[in-house]
Amino acid sequence: MTVQIIAVSLLVLFLLIVVLTLISRYRMCPPDRILVVYGKLANGLSSRCYHGGSTFVIPFFQSYGYLDLTPINIEIELKGALSSQNIRIDTPASFTIGISTDPEVMQNAATRLLGRTMAEIEQLASEIIMGQMRVVFASMTIEEINNDREKLIALITKGVEVELHKVGLRMINGNIRDIKDHSGYIDALGKEAAAKAINDAQIRVAQENQRGAVGKAEAEREQAIRVATAQAEARKGENTAQVVIAKSNADLAMEQAEAKRRTEAAQKVAEARALQESYKAEQEAEVARALMEKAHLQAEQIVKAEIDKERIRIDAEAKAAQTKIIQEGQAAAYIIQKEAEAEGIRRVAEGEAQGIKAKLGAEASGIQAKLTAEAEGTRALLDAKAQGFEKLLQVADGTSGATQLLVAENIVRIAEIQAGAIKGLQFEKIVVMGGGNGTNAGAGQFVQDLYKGVLPINEVARSVGLNLPAFLGTPAGEPKADPKAEPPKHS
User: Fold this and answer.
1) What are phi and psi of 368, to 5 degrees?
2) Domain residue spans in the chain?
3) Topology at the third CATH level for domain 70-183
4) φ and ψ at 48, to 5 degrees?
């Protein structure tokens, strides 16, 4: 039991030591410092900076340190700096710097200033500031350095800020206390400025005196003008008062005259109104009497008119009833007449329709019979041709019978083709030799010879064993056929 208690006590003690160690490694950063954690860090960083907040520092793997944010005041005694005019100047100045809290600049401070004392940081900053001041003075003239201090401070601040950021510092404030040169140029510029200021002051005094004299004269003139104006206003006031008094008297007289006129007019109006009222009363009496007589006459006329109106209404109703009876009778007769006419027209139309139907049926029967007869005739003709063609084929040798039949059936077409060959010929003049006895037989013979010479149709027919009529000509070398002779028979 004692061993177990000791073991438990040792375990608890170990855990307490571990907890205390862990608690002791949890660091919070105060606002006037920067906590820098270094050692084994993520992403290969050399250190991590915290301004405010807290973090846990892993034992055995990480450590930490602090950078003080307390401002550092640096006194610079710059001597023998050259200006752009190669004039040496001495410039005592004071600057206030501190470690920057910008994340990037803060990382530079952790890299370059961690572990350094305040004196070492002050010495480093002094060297950087003096170097930048020499650069700025070398780019400016004495006049610019002496006259434009704001530009000088701005240039120095701009150059110093860039260099201080490289080591993790920033400039809080800068001040140039004095500027002195070894040649006395600045003193001369001061004397020139003083003389100029004195002259300017004297000029301003003279100008002020002149302005005072002018102002005095203007004030006196203004005073005289105001006095004259006041007197004129006073005189004008008196005149205005007199005008007002005269106008008031005139208005009083006018009001009195107007009151008198109104009184007289009122009396006359009252007399005229009394006379008018008497006339009006008499007129109203006459009008009442006339209206009474008119009403009496109107009553008589209205009664008579009502009687005439009633009589006319009774006559009109009687005539209207009679007219209505006559019109109803005429309408009934007219309707009966129209129905009879419509029935007659319907019957006539039915008769005409039946006649047209019968006529169309007869015409259709006739057309059908005609077409049937034509069809039968055509069929009989075709049968006859077929029989003749068969008989001709039986009698003829080889294919000559068929050839004769084809030529015979197409002889008209052959003649049309022969006539078309000479149809388009035009002759301006024809001289016919022969014919004798002064007749025109020679012209006819010429046309016949021309027709026969274009296409020897007789020879075409003879080549298949056919003899054509004599008017179509005879073959060459044969005597003319007698037109009165009978045509040869062909079996």
Assistant:
1) -65, -40
2) 23-69, 70-183, 415-483
3) Tetrahydropterin Synthase; Chain A (3.30.479)
4) -135, 130
